[in-house]
Amino acid sequence: MNRWIEFVESRNWAFGGGGNGDHQEFSGFICRGERGSLTEQDRGAIQEWLKQQDWVTDFAVQELQDVWHGYDWPACLTIKYGFSLQAISNAP
Q: What number of helices (H) and strands (E) belong to the chain?
């Protein structure tokens, strides 16, 4: 998980979420650490990074959503050690 946090912070993003009881899955959402929205390019960077991680057995990155005007929880992003993650925007 440290590598995931380092990756997110290196992009000046924020991640909110948590894991399940058996510690085999993690899910949450990602947004920018400042005003603005993630882009499709950011979403692609997340997917590419996850593909390169040997500890990730499976993942799902949903479509971009607006964090201020309704998003579908729980699975923004899901990663299974895999884990899952959803990238969402933080600005209208």
A: 2, 5
Closest CA to 88 of 16, 10, 1: 16
Token pair recorded at residue 65: 């959503």
Beta strand segments in 34-92, E: 58-62, 77-80, 83-87
Tokens of 81: 């050690």
Instruction: Give per-residue pLDDT as tens, 36-91.
Output: 788 889 999 999 999 999 888 888 888 887 766 665 544 455 566 554 444 444 44
**Which range has highest mean pLDDT (4-18, 26-40, 55-69)?**
4-18
Dihedral angle computed from the Cα positions of residues 37, 20, 58 and 85, in that order, rounded to the nearest 10 degrees: 0
Where in the chain are the domains?
A: 2-87
Q: Hunting for tokens 């997110």 — which residue is that?
A: 8
